[in-house]
Model the fold of this input.
Amino acid sequence: MEFANTLIVKTLTVEENVTVMDFDSIYEQTYSELKKFAMRKCSNLADVGDVLQETYMELYQIILKKGESYIKDPRAMVFKLCRQKLAKYYHLSAKLKNMLDFHNETLENFEDLHCLEDVVSDNDSIERAKIYLAKKSQNIQKCFYLFYIEEQSIADIAETLNLTQSDVKNKLYRTIKELRSML
Done:
């Protein structure tokens, strides 16, 4: 996710016609809430960063073409753009493609499983854990990603995924227990 943020900011510095500060303020005001929205709506964890990046890039293009005065309600504009991106990603043909690519994309998102050192201790165990997690539901994968990679609290994960805190804890603890028994 940080890469996408950096890419957006670096792209902005190339253009002279837009007041970067206006885009930055919209980005700062909306990113956290939009990320939670996208995390809930994306059926594939790998799509969240792409949807967010494309949303903000289109916002930037709109500011370039129509000017900052065109945007009356930045939050509404950003969410409208995000819903459009989500519709594009999850059109029927895109769903079929995502099903085929799902396994490989999911494994790439769990490159940093070293934070589970008490469960997985060597490279072979890490690979088996990645494969095991790739077979779990998207909700479990999202919980793992947010907890171990993004280092979010249980409460924040529950809010982001629209689950109860006990659901998040159960998903994490049961999966850890299964990983321990498997490895």
Q: What stands out?
A: The chain has nine helices and no strands.
